[in-house]
């Protein structure tokens, strides 16, 4: 890695972690865990900034749902059954949903909006969101950190590893196109 890139990561890394987790979430947290493993960032500070980014973005989305959810959610016409199901789950298990919604695939952005539209108490959401965000930030950063350490211990040349990743990516892409092609013929 070049000295300039290393300097940029160490100078702006925590802000990049914070804003990256606000925008992209898991990918930014995972990659920041890799940076922490490579000692470009502090592991504990990286977990903190990842958690803070997730917490802030979820609180903003919660407020959007609280004040505009009744106008936003009806626009998702294809997903009304899913939205209704999540609202039902919120009524049944509010605390668990608030903590765990960030871990549900496809619910990272819309989940807090649905929770806000469900008129959950904002203070309750804030407290539970901090708890869930701390678990999420520490967990995803740690996964990136430890996956990086495992990959670096593999006894294979890095070019071989990148070639294998590229082949797997191409095969997955071909499989996806084949599936799309078949579904369009039906």
Q: Which features does this protein show?
A:
186 residues; 0% strand; mainly alpha
Question: Secondary-structure blueprint of this entry?
Answer:
Elements: H1 3-23, H2 26-37, H3 43-72, H4 80-92, H5 94-100, H6 110-117, H7 122-153, H8 158-185
Helix pairs in contact: 1-2, 1-3, 2-3, 2-7, 3-6, 3-7, 4-5, 5-7
- Report, as a whole number of angstroms, the end-to-end distance: 49 Å
In quaternary terms, these chains amount to: single chain
Give the averaged pLDDT, no decimals.
86
User: Unreliable runs, pLDDT <50, ≥5 residues?
Assistant: none
> Which series of helices and strands comes N to C?
HHHHHHHH
- Based on CA atoms alone, the radius of gyration comes out at 20 Å
The backbone outline, from C-alpha atoms, is flat
Main sheet attributes: strand count, strand direction, barrel closure: none
Number of strands: 0
Helix % is over 70%
Strand composition percent? under 5%
The number of helices is 8
The secondary structure category is mainly alpha
């Amino acid at each position: 890695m070049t000295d300039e890139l290393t300097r940029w990561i160490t100078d702006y890394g925590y802000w990049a972690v914070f804003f990256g987790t606000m925008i992209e979430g898991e990918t930014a947290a995972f990659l920041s865990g890799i940076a922490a493993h490579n000692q470009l960032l502090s592991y504990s500070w990286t977990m903190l900034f990842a958690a803070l980014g997730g917490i802030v973005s979820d609180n903003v989305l919660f407020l959007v749902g609280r004040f505009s959810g009744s106008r936003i959610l009806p626009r998702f016409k294809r997903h009304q059954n899913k939205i209704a199901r999540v609202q039902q789950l919120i009524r049944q298990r509010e605390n668990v949903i608030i903590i765990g919604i960030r871990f549900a695939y496809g619910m990272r952005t819309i989940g807090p909006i649905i929770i806000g539209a469900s008129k959950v108490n904002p203070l309750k959401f804030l407290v539970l969101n901090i708890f869930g965000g701390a678990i999420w930030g520490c967990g995803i950063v740690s996964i990136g950190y430890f996956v990086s350490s495992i990959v670096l211990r593999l006894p294979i040349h890095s070019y071989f590893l990148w070639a294998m990743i590229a082949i797997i990516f191409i095969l997955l892409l071909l499989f996806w196109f084949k599936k799309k092609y078949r579904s369009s013929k039906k």
